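Researcher: Here's my situation. A collaborator sent me these components and asked whether they could plausibly form a single complex. I don't have experimental data yet, so a predicted model of the whole assembly would be a useful starting point for our discussion.
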Amino acid sequence: MKQNLFLTRNEPDWLALEQTLTKGASQEERATFPRLYRRACQHLAVARTRLYSLGLIERLEYLVLSAHQRLYGSGTTHRGRLAGFVARDFPQAVRREWRLVLIGALVFYLPLVGMLVAPQLDPDLVYTVLDPDTAKEIESMYEPGGDRIGESRDSDSDTLMFAFYVYNNTSIGFRTFAGGLLFGIGSLFILLYNGLVIGAVGGHLTRIGYGEPFWSFVAGHSALELTAVVLSGAAGLRLGLALIAPGRHTRAEALHRGASSAVPIIGGAAAMFFAAAFIEGFWSSMGFIPAQIKYGVGLTLWALVLAYFALQGRGRGA
Amino acid sequence: MPALRSGQDASFSEPAGVLDTLRSVETPEGIALGLRPAGPLSRMVAWLIDAILRFAAVYVLVLGLSMLGRFGVGLLLIAVFLLEWLYPVAFELLMDGQTIGKRAMGLRVLCDDATPVTLSASLLRNLLRAVDFLPMLYGLGVAAMLTNRDFKRLGDLAAGTLVVYVVRPRRSQALVKAQPLTPPVALEAEEQQAVVGFAERMVELSPERARELAALAEPLGVHGLAPTPERLVRIASWLTG
């Protein structure tokens, strides 16, 4: 069959298919989509086999590709997916990778506790991690009796601090995650470093007697923020593990499989960073709230966070 | 030229020794779709355009929000954070896989199976930019692109995405209506496709170039002379019926 005959015979179908892909297509037009799409695929195969002109083949390829994307593109609504993510995907992903979460927690918390305790015995150890200027600035931020704790003297806007924490902490979390692609070394390094620094700050302040401002400041947001840091590291380690030990898959395939766990974890961690920044910016720095209340809120949040990851998303249908 | 075998998708058979970046994706309907992955150079230009736009946006925001004092600086920080990490994600999801820079360069992000990019894939490939950017200006990313058949950077490899050229079909594929002329020799299928392809492309060629190309088809000439472009167009008209 010559090309022009093929064209005149089948072009109405192609135009109809293009019509169903437009926004203004009616319900009846859309109902014809499956048949028209299959037919267009057949026409493309025929045109290729008979080596019709490239212009015709390109036109059909473009049509088939557009229809293919409309058919197989994801169609779920975002609202339902968000609810499912919070209720199921996120906690299940964390529980699935509990070994990596444990490794991340150890790499983070052991140095942290170490640098909390050590300065009580040897005060100068702090300066292996912090330089003296930073230490001085931190001391001024956490002086007892101040009406704003945890912030530099000249910052007086909660929104500014909230934004700063969002920018700073979430970026650290994202970099921890991305560092996992370097065979996990990047994530481990960032976790270790942050554990040391946070522990050093806490240890130093406790030793010089500024313990109460510091601990009441961190109590509120620590549950969300520290857990988010550990989870970012765990997500990064998941990618690193795919590269180090791909098992029976190619490394690319192992990365894809790892990503199905890693992406929900880092996504949830980002949300936790955001919430922690909110608490840190608007609640933690208020000096007039008694320390006991802050400790109580902090412990409650810790209990909630741990319960969420331990219990949420289990059971029937989960 | 290899002879046609029945059932073979002829336009995708590669003669040995020819480099081609075409990536073939088979759909559940049994048809193979061809995607053209884009190389580092065009992607870098697209990234540069996006970087300039982001910088300009930050500049405008700085001017505007500085009037709101500390509160404005706070908003600015949040805006910078979102622009740095999530600008590409928003565009890839809302604008059919294209950021503004990519649209300017005619590029698009797709999943490996030619479906539109998903939220998970877009997040992953954009968060991993932090690694692709090392050690300086996408050094690792470009290195990955060059060692990879599909020009994927590390983020693409992890997320299973491709950056492809958007191939829009040429508007006019109707041949100039010339009087049909039977070809003097029998033509094989690929040769017919070449002649018809030449006729379709003639509007884009300069007259000298058209003559130069037409002269290559010596057997189709008359009296031993090289054929003219017009003669080839007439033969093409006969071939397409």
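Model: Some features of this prediction you could bring to your collaborator: Chain B touches chain A through 62 residues (CB under 8 Å). Residues 1-11 of chain B have pLDDT under 50 and may be disordered.
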